Amino acid sequence: MGKALEGVRVLDFTHVQSGPTCTQLLAWFGADVIKVERAGAGDVTREQLRDIPDADSLYFTMLNHNKRSITVDAKHPEGRQVLETLIRQCDVLVENFAPGALERMGLGWERVQVLNPRMIYASVKGFGPGPYQDCKVYENVAQCVGGAASTTGFEDGPPVVSGAQIGDSGTGLHLALGIVTALYQRTVTGRGQYVLAAMQDAVLNLCRVKLRDQQRLDRTGVLREYPQHPKGTFGPAVPRAGNASGGGQPGWILRCKDWEWDYNAYIYFIVQAPVWSKICNLIGREEWIGDPDYATPGARLPRLAEIFAEIERWTMTKTKIEAMQILNKYEIPCGPVLSMREIVDDESLRKTGTIVEIDHPARGSYLSVGNPIKLSDSPTVVTRSPLLGEHTDEVMAEFGFSAERIAALRAIGAI
Ligand code: COA
User: Fold this and answer.
1) First-to-last CA distance in the chain?
2) How many helices (H) and strands (E) does the chain have?
3) What pTM was computed for the model?
């Protein structure tokens, strides 16, 4: 059986993380992704954070699986001719250069539309149109300008960025959806279109609950499920809420057995309203079930700190895994805080292909994330990332270049 995106050719001008996340997803779904790099240099991440001298870094390999790599100097007139030939025969062009870079190569949206009106031209930029549209942006910049940092952390500390790469990988995911949507629309219109995912927009999209809370705060002056309530006062903006749940069911991170030496011995505990009586029975506070000060979600809000302290007295008698097993029996939502070490060792994640072990000629075997999106008719088989320029001759031959022409282009430094 074929893959979902089989037959879709993607010219991949992406680098670093956000764009490569997007094109890796397309490749995992079966698209032919041709990564364009500069000879002798390539994607800067090939050599960033290296753990093995001279081998492509994990940073690069984990973002560029299932792709082919060609080297073309886009600023060489002959190199540009090569790219124009490829553009005429591809379906999608993806890029995440700083604003203006592709235009300086002579390959802006206007030009590409002329070359190939069916082309879907997809960009990651830091900001959408507006005062900051020309700025370069990296992950944590996006987290700061998208509302994530100001709402993450504890009330008495500075803004905090998340370890989750919501700015880079998050935007790549958004862009991939935009591309497949545009491919779908093309089946009706016959036309390509420009697809833009700005990192600020993607982060804000993922922070929508805080935009919700800003408006609730503006209207009522208080956010009753936040730790600032009832002891603190609220200012004009949504405050940092520590580990409070972002949803309608209060939650917090609680210590478990061994927390004194294991800094990941914690569990996220949700005081879900439908299981309140089960929670009370489990922690030995049966009297709270019928007590009007505790019986309803509204009554509990000003007492959350006391309630979580009492629950923590129970969780501290169990390891996080024991606690999870017991809580699951009572359908009480919870999540042990898993370290990356524990995740690496989790056999079930290997079985589903969420973590995969890949072999690479220069670095040997390494672990990577597999495709987190599973399609029953289009299973993902993860293959290693390409070496720099590994597929230049092969791809150029497929696009109609003769061996002599390829040799001549190489001799003048165009590829
Ligand atoms: N042939 C010739 N030149 C090439 C080339 C090729 N095959 N591939 C890249 N280049 C050139 C580009 O033309 C550009 O040159 P120019 O600016 O002189 O015209 C340069 O290499 C790369 O440009 P740039 O994107 O500015 O790289 P940078 O390292 O200075 O900035 C970012 C990196 C990520 C900050 C920037 O690309 C950016 O803001 N991207 C958009 C937002 C984004 O995706 N950020 C997240 C990254 S994870």
Assistant:
1) 35
2) 17, 11
3) 0.96
Known catalytic residues?
Answer: 168
244 contacts 252 by C-beta, under 8 angstroms = yes
94 alpha carbon – ligand 1 mean position (Å): 13
pLDDT at 1 over 80: no
Could you tell me the two tokens for 377? Answer: 């008719």
Torsion of CA 193, 198, 203, 204, to 10 degrees: -80
Pick the residue whose CA is nearest to atom 38 on ligand 1. 98
Q: What is the CA radius of gyration of the chain?
A: 26
Residue 72 is predicted with a pLDDT of 97
Atom of ligand 1 nearest to the CA of 74: 1
Instruction: Confirm or reject: Cβ of 392 under 6 Å from ligand 1.
Output: no
> How far apart are alpha carbons 282 and 292 in whole angstroms?
19
Dump pLDDT digits (tens) for 165-195.
Answer: 999 999 999 999 999 999 999 999 999 999 9
Closest residue CA from atom 35 of ligand 1: 136
Q: Does any ligand 1 atom lie closer than 6 A to the CB of residue 104? A: yes
User: Are the C-beta atoms of residues 358 and 28 closer than 8 Å to each other?
Assistant: no
> Using a 6 Å cutoff on CB, does residue 126 contact ligand 1?
yes
Question: Is the pLDDT confidence value at 115 over 90?
Answer: yes
Mutate to test the pocket of ligand 1, among 72, 78, 136 (most ligand atoms within 8 A of CB): 136
Closest CA to 332 of 289, 371, 376, 277: 277
Residues 2-49 have pLDDT tens digits of 899 999 999 999 999 999 999 999 999 999 999 999 988 999 999 999
